[in-house]
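Database export, one record per block. Field names are fixed; values are copied verbatim from the stored entry.
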Amino acid sequence: MQTLAIIILAVLIPSVYTTTCSQCIEDAIKVENRLTNITVQIELGQYLNKTICQHLPDPEKDVCGQIVIVDLPRIIDKVVQKYSPEDICQKLGYC
């Protein structure tokens, strides 16, 4: 789960704009607010299903689709609950 949190936030917090600990925390809060929006979660699940899952062989395609459509909101909620913006920025090396 920790790795997933780092990957999600490393992708969503562009290092070009984040140069300080405080900026990273500010950006992480913005990302967290977007990720906890159910509409964003649905769109992200649909995007991942379309761009990743649909290119896998049949058995894996179905499992992948199930994970990103059904389980993604729960995964995001667990990541947000477990890791504060400060934790994430520290792990990304900004703090």
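Remark 1: The mean pLDDT is 80.
Remark 2: Residues 13 and 27 are 6 Å apart (CA to CA).
End of record.
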